[in-house]
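pasting for the record
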Amino acid sequence: MDYSTPLSLFDRATFDLFVPVVFVFPAPTPSNEALKGGLHRAVAAYPQLAGRLVVDQHGRRSIHVNNQGVLVLEAAASVELANVDFVVDGRVVSDIGAMYPRLPQPEESIGSAVLQMKLTRYSCGGLVVGLTFHHQVLDGTALDGFLTTWSRAVRQGADFTPPSPLLDRGFFLADADADAGRVPLFDHGSTEFKTSSGDDHRGRGICRDMKTVMVSFTPEFIAGLKARVGTTCTRFQCLLAHMWKKTTQARGLSPEEFTQVRVAVNCRGRARPIVPSDYLGNMVLWAFPRLQARDVLSSTYGHVVSVIRQAVARVDADYIQSFLDYGAAADARGQELRATAPPHGAMCGPDIEVDSWLGFGYHRLDFGGGPQSLLLLPDMPAEGIMVFMPCVDNKGGVDVLIALEEEHVTPFLKICHSLI
């Protein structure tokens, strides 16, 4: 197997970095050999994950599907898992980076394994799986599908039947000539992309002292938030309104300052035609609810939720087609496109960037010994990034991870559960 598949426009619009995810499994756990055997069977159905990123003569990236494989490291710890602290006083511990392979720098992405992991065994039989993946190769939905396949391959062994996910990123290019002749309906040159000569309108410097914080919200707390909204809403919508209020307050923004939320929107079900949920690749665009700080803090929860809901609704089939038209026209002109996604270590403040994992099955990942006891994103790419995840106890609660400047962490932790 040896071929290349170009990155899609959606791939090119997302973060150009490796994302680490850490899963903590108490004993009993399957052996490393069982995990690696299942990984081998699962990756056969997702051959791009065994490939490498390459760059052509025009500077465009592709995935070289060459079966070079997934990087797997193995380690042993002489302590019991119960004695290891991953989160202390709401803060994710700083040395958790030892739990996953070293994150390649941006200039090292080309030629590195696009999927890497580290299996760390503890004296009690517990296991930590530290996984990293390059975001331009797959998004959260695609990763969820792969992880589900891997866990099933481990549990079923020789009885495993591989799935047939949609691997063709070229279906976005099928009408490229027609797309290049259409005028985009929306301004994507200052939203998802900037031209090579343009300024980064989101650039706010580098955060020198960033901490990742983890807070949990019970089903009862979420029910209270929904009651404050006053209309039907999702867990995500009411919690995002709450977190927008609390981060705005903790940052001490001036009343006149505008703050916006960059909300990741899965476009698979919004595109026309609908893209299958098992598509391996990125299929995310962003909504941008925006308010002045005074309005975020003084408005009712119902109003803030309505602002969020209206912004997300604008990412519809017409918007997605406009995005594709913009990319096709830019490619036809030979125009270089650079994503507006914040680089590693950047400051998003006064804005925040939000991803919801509430619809994924990461918290139910089970290799045969039961689901994990903890799920973490230990190295947030930028200050102001926030991720919503189901609590691993699967009782309806939500864990929220957010990266903040150190000076804002204590104020945030003091007020994050307050409804005042």
